[in-house]
Design goal:
By secondary structure, this protein is of the alpha+beta class. It is built from 14 helices and 16 strands. It has four domains: about 5-40; about 55-105; about 120-285, Nucleotidyltransferase, domain 5 (2-Layer Sandwich); about 295-410, no CATH class.
Length: about 425
Amino acid sequence: MITVEDWAEIRRLHRAEGLPIKEIARQLGLARNTVRAALRSDRPPTYQRPSRGSVVDPYEPAIRALLATWPRMPGPVIAQRIDWPYSEGPLKKRLAKIRPEYVGVDPVSRTSYRPGELAQCDLWFPATKIPVGAGQARILPVLVMALGYSRFLSATVLPSRQTGDLLSGMWQLITGLGRVPRTLVWDREAGIAIKGRVNAPVAGFVGTLATRIQLAPPRDPEFKGIVERANGYLETSFLPGRSFTSPEDFTAQLDGWLVRANQRTVRSIAGRPAELLAADHAAMTVLPPVDPGTGLRHRTRLARDHYVRVDTCDYSVDPRVIGRFVDTYASLSTVTVVCDEEIVARHSRSWAQRVVVNDPAHLATAQALRREFAARREAGARAARQHADGHTVVLRALPDYDALFGVDFDPTPDLDPNPDTAEATPS
C-alpha cells in the first residue's frame, strides 16, 4: 500500500506534468498497477487494520438477549448471568456500545425563548456558612431566577425551604423585575410540588399573578439548564474569597455582584442581559393589583405558654389573649400575630434555630397577670374559710376529731415480743 505522499506525487506528475504511467512508475519505483490505482482513487489512501475480534463476540448474543428484556441491567449482573470469565474491561466497552440500542437515546435540543416567555427558578446552596445570630452559622438556601430570553439573573437568600418562604422569595424577585414572567419553571422541589402537582399555596400564588408553574421532568436537570449554569457561575465567580457577617451582608454583596454579572456578554445569546432586559420586560404581564399570599401562615389557640412557633423558633405573644385563636404570619423579616384583627405580637424574624424571642412588654404583662391570679386565688381561699354569718371557721387537726369521738387509733401494729411462746394453732 502506497503512502499519502506517494499518492499525492503520482497525481501531481500525471495531471500537472503530463507524464505517462510508465514514466511515473519508473521515477517513483512503483508498479504500474499501483500508479493506475492511485490515479483512479479520489481520496488519500488509509490503512485499516483487520479486526481480530474480541473475547466478547461469543457472548454478545446472550448479552443482547438480556438487554432486550432488561435494558438497564448493571454490567456486574450481566457478567454473572453469562458466566463471564475475563476482566470487566472488554465487557464494559461492549455494553457502552450496544446498550443505547435497547435503552434508547434522549437527545437534548437547543431551545430559543421569546421575550417575556419564562423564568427558570432553582435553589443554590453555597458551601460557606452565614452567621445568623445566637452564636449560630448556617448554610442558607439562595433562590436564583434566570430569565430565558435575556439571561438576566436575580437572587435572594432565604431562611428556609418551606413553601411560604419560597413564595416570599419569588415575589421579592418578581417585584424587583417590575413585571411577571408568563411561565415559572421549577424542578420538583418539595415546597413547590407534591407528587408532580403544585401544592395549594403555590397554585394560589400563580393564580394571583396570572402566570403558571411548569415542573421539570424527574431527574432531568438539563430541562432548566439556564438556571443550573447560573448556579455554577455563582459558585465559581461570586463565592470564592468571600466571607459574610450576616444574611444582610450576604445580600448586599450578592446584589453588588449581580449588577456586574448582568453586564457581561453571554456567548449563547451574543448580548448583555442588562441590555436585553427591556425586551423581556415589555413582553411580560403586569403586576397584580393585590399582593399574593406569601410567607408562613398558621392559626392556633394560644396556650398558657403564650408563645407561637415559626420554623424552629418560639415568639412571645400578649398573654391577655390566652385561650383565644391567633393567626401567625411570618415574612422573611418579621413575625406578626393577630387576634380578632388586632396585632398582639410583632417581632423581627430570627434566622437562627431553636431560639426564644421575647417582648419585654409581654413578660411584664404575664407577671402582672400571675400576681393578679394569685391574689384572686388567695381571696377565694379566705372566703371559703369564713362562716355565713361572718365568723372565721376554725380548721382542726384530724386527731382532735378522734379524741372527740373516743376513737383510740394507734398506727403502730401490735406485735408479740416473744413469738416462741405463742400457742400453736390446732390442725
